[in-house]
Each structure stands twice: as C-alpha cells, then as structure tokens.
Amino acid sequence: MMRRLLSVFAWLSLVVAAPAFADAPAPLAGLESQLRSIAAGSPSDVGIAALDLKSGEMVSISGNTPYPMASVVKVAIAANYLAQVENGRRSLDDRIGGQSARSLLARMMIHSDNVATDKILADLGGPSTIQAWMRQQGLDGIRIDRTIAQLLSAKRDLQDERDSATPIAFVKLLQKLDSGVLLRPASRAYLLNLMEQCATGRNRLKGELPGVKIEHKTGTLNGLSTDVGFMTLPDGRRIAVAVFARYGSNRPSAIAAAARTIYDGFRTLVTAPFGISFNSRRDPLAPLPTGANN
To answer: For residue 279, what pLDDT is reported?
Structure first.
C-alpha cells in the first residue's frame, strides 16, 4: 500500500513539474509534420516555434536549438526601455545623443537602425542590463552579450551562442509581451504598432501572407535570416511566431513558407469550449464560421 502511494505521489510531482511548453499536441501533429518537411527540404538550418496565444498550443522544429538573433534582439531592448518608462525612470521624450527616445525607438523597430539601437542600449546600461531583465522575467534561452556594433565587427560564427535565442524561448518572450507580463496595455500597444510598421524583410513572415496583420521584427547577418512576431487569424486568434534560418540559400523563402504553413495550420484548428481542439475539415482558405472560436 505504501509503495503504491509513493508511486502516486511521484506521478503527481511529474505532472505538477511539467513544463508549460511541451511537444506539439495531437491536433497539431499534421502541422508539425509539414513544418518538418519545409525544414528538411531547405538547404538552411531552420528553427521554428509557433504558439497559439489563446489555447497555449505550440508547435516547434529545433525549438530548443540556439540561433543567432541578429536584429530581433531589438524587441527585447525596446520592451525594456518601455518598461522603464512605465516605472518613471525614463521618458519617450528623453534626449539621447541629440534625438528623442521616441524617434530612436521608431528608427530601431521600423527601419532596424543599428546606430539608434546602440544609443538606446547604451542609455539603458548596455547588454548586461537587458540580460538581467530577461532573467528577472524568467526568460531563459535568450542571451544578450554585445552591442550591435560589437556583433557586426566580430568574426562571423553562426554557431556562437552569444547573442542567441532558441525559437521556443523567443515565443515565450512574445507571449509575455502579449499577455501584459512585461508591459502595460498602453506600452504594449505602442510597441506592437511599431512592429506592425516594420519596413524590413517583407519577403519573410509577410512574404506569402498579403493582407494578414503581422507585427514583427526581422534580423539579418551574412548567412542568417530571422523573423519574429505575431500573426492574427481571421477569427481574431493571435499566433506568436519565431523563425530562424542559417546557412544555405534562399532563407527568406523558407521563412515565408513556414509562416504560410503556420497560418493555415492554426487557422484550420478550431478551439472548442473547455480548450478541446480538433482539426476542421473545411477548405483551409475558406472563412471560418462565425462563432467557431467562442
């Protein structure tokens, strides 16, 4: 009897300790298979994570593998600056290097201006400040080690784990940003508005999704293309997405194909009451019925 009780307690401890992000649930198995085929068919090393922010269902390919972030790190830098604005330590009207923080943030997030980024980063206290904030927020799997200037001047090594993130870690950052854990609603809306205006990498997450609302940030190095952000489905559900591709050729096309597959896959996944999900048999391009996601 005692042995049986101990076994039950051991099982319960495993259930309680289960991570929030697990393998793709059964309804997403088909999507995972399609994404795996895209990754396998690409000459690049592709890492993918996509999370339904309503249901918590996630799919990933090489989700725990670190990839260089390049400029997608600017999402974390901007979020940290806005958090400090909320705490009264800084203002969007502060002058940094002769320009307003508001102007620098816009240049950083919309046009991926590296000089503007390093000015904001220096004002915050450097990479170590952002890294400490990441840890404080429980965001493991993301490393912020160098300024943009230092990163660009260093010898290129796409296996270097400095300034890297795993796809799963980055969608966790996006989830915390979306849920209000990192920023209050006004600051969150401000950052998402900048991400929606992103003018770089239009052939990546947006490449095969014309007309779809996408709030994102791209990153590029020699041999590396990245894109992270949010896509909104016709029924209002939002999907956090992080796609990293290194080596090989035509990396943006692999990112665009993954994004389209993620959009179609989650679009045909209808969430029923009590969080039970099933795959719809409707045409994936047909509109979902009204109230399908109530």
So the answer is: 41
| CA 83 to each of CA 42, 80, 135, 182: distance values in angstroms, whole numbers, following the listed order | 38, 5, 15, 7
Residue 289 has pLDDT above 80, yes or no: no
Q: Which tokens hold the place of 169?
A: 């870690």
- pTM of this prediction? 0.85
Residue entry with tokens 């965001």: 139
Alpha helices, DSSP H only, in the chain? Answer: 2-16, 29-41, 74-86, 101-110, 114-124, 127-136, 148-153, 167-179, 185-196, 251-267
Choose among 240, 231, 105: nearest CA to 179: 240
Region of 35 on the Ramachandran plot (φ > 0 left; ψ -120 to 50 alpha; else beta):
alpha
The pLDDT value given to residue 274: 40
Contacts of 18 (CB under 8 A, 6+ apart): none
Which one of 3.40.1280.10, 3.40.710.10, 3.90.1150.10, 3.10.270.10 gives the CATH number of domain 24-276?
Answer: 3.40.710.10
